[in-house]
Amino acid sequence: MLPGDGIGPEVIAESVKLLDAIAAQTDLEFNYTEALAGGAAIDKAGDPMPQKTLELCKSSDAVLLAAVGGPKWDDLTGAMRPESGLLKIRKELGVFANLRPVSVSPSLAESSPLRPSEVIGIDLLTVRELTGGIYFGQPVGNDGNEAFNTMRYSVGEIERVSRVAFDKARKRRNKVTSVDKANVLEVSRLWRDTVKRLHATEFPDVELGHMYIDNAAMQMVIRPRQFDVILTENLFGDILSDVSATLGGSLGLLPSASIGGRVGLFEPVHGSAPDIAGQGKANPTAMILSAAMMLEELGEAHAAAAVRHGVASAMGGNSRTGDLWHEGYRRVSTSEMGALIREETLNHLHPKGLKQEPAITGV
Ligand code: IPM
Ligand code: MN
């Protein structure tokens, strides 16, 4: 568990309370160890991602990370930035596929900046490549007069993240939209050729389309329901997933899972929100749904579904944290929202032991 900075500790606490409540009702058991990351780690250990934290993460089954960064560390540069710590742990864990799902229920549609009629029923998943591209490409340089970064992908890197996208699509609405800038970039041409070839050889049953990033950004705002799975490279995925996050009205709802290595990394899409840190105002939903994605990836689909249903039921009520609050609703704190989600989740969970009962087999 890496609580990190700002609202991180507050929202991760709600995930832990929820997991503990689930453990009390099932045969699941969770063992947590906390470690330093981000600004908190810079202050205490002089490194945004200390070796000790990395080793602990690598020896765990999963990592829950809340958020890193804040104004206090904004003037730091290079490897000392909290964000560098984040990039480092992604790279070290080898989590090359970042899953960012967005769905909009009728009860949330009115919080969207788009017309409710256009957003009800949105159910999309961005699969963002996470350990390559311009975030990591060498060489990089800045001599004060000229600066450059390198966007670089190999066929192998493109294939492995594409497989994740196609696999996920098969369990959803069976449609992948690959997003690139193949009309301009060499890297994107390799990206598109590779996705096409992989599709033809391994996933011909999945519907595949291609879109340029500029058009995709526009399509996401004017006709978001057309998307099922969006497959894209690191920087495009960073931008596009923030756009997708606004569709449901709040960044405070969006979870993510970064997978592909032995140990998965589960973190909300939102940041550390220093302006509201420590005030009990943050929405714990994104962190809680990230824990649900963790349960899913660990093979606990039943518990994961209970959490998702719990969140949906809680959202169906009239309590809202500040990010989603408006006239007619009750404004609740981080821990009140956490408690509501917990209560609803337990309602959706089967009682202790049930999971263990043998399936009824035919005579
Ligand atoms: C995200 C964030 C990070 C990214 C930053 C904080 C390094 O924006 O997870 O989307 O760009 O990947
Ligand atoms: Mn981002």
Q: What global shape is seen?
A: globular
Class computed from helices, strands and strand pairing: alpha/beta
- What's the alpha carbon Rg, rounded to whole Å? 21 Å
The helix-strand sequence is EHHHEHEHHEEEHEHEHEHEEHHEEH
Strand content: 5-15%
Q: What top-tier CATH class of the largest domain fits best?
A: Alpha Beta
User: Main sheet?
Assistant: 9 strands, mixed
Percent helix, as a range, is: 40-55%
Mean pLDDT figure = 94
The small molecules bound here are: 3-isopropylmalic acid, manganese (II) ion
Instruction: List the uncertain runs.
Output: 353-363
Write the layout of secondary structure elements.
Elements: E1 2-4, H1 8-25, H2 39-45, H3 51-58, E2 62-67, H4 82-93, E3 97-103, H5 106-109, H6 116-119, E4 123-129, E5 141-142, E6 147-148, H7 155-170, E7 175-180, H8 186-202, E8 207-212, H9 213-222, E9 229-232, H10 234-247, E10 257-259, E11 264-266, H11 285-297, H12 301-316, E12 319-320, E13 330-331, H13 334-348
Parallel strand pairs: 1-2, 2-11, 4-9, 7-8, 7-9, 12-13
Antiparallel strand pairs: 3-4, 3-10, 5-6, 10-11
Helix pairs in contact: 1-11, 1-13, 7-8, 9-10, 11-12, 12-13
